[in-house]
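Extended Data, panel c. Modelled sequence:
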Amino acid sequence: MDEAIERIKNPDTIKIIIQLKQVGNAPILKQSLFKISRTHKFQAVIQFLRRELKYQGSDPLFLYINGAFAPSPDEPLDNLYKCFSIDGKLIVNYCTTAAWG
């Protein structure tokens, strides 16, 4: 009940855990778990990962949820988390070539 009240009072303070998993020949991150505000869009994860990997806008980077599909950049993270989280984490696979549809 307290969490529901907190979500109403301060929606930006609730964070979700994202686990970034490398696929194929993509560089491996030293840290794979990150917390991000649930109010952000998936584009924030894309930008964050590009910054962490030191990738330019022209460098290919593909992100997938649970190795199954590539969400739209304007998809709210809260929706993705509610529908596709596993053990309290949203798993985002990333690679440099298209891996899944």
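The chain has a mean pLDDT of 88. This feature is highlighted in the accompanying rendering.
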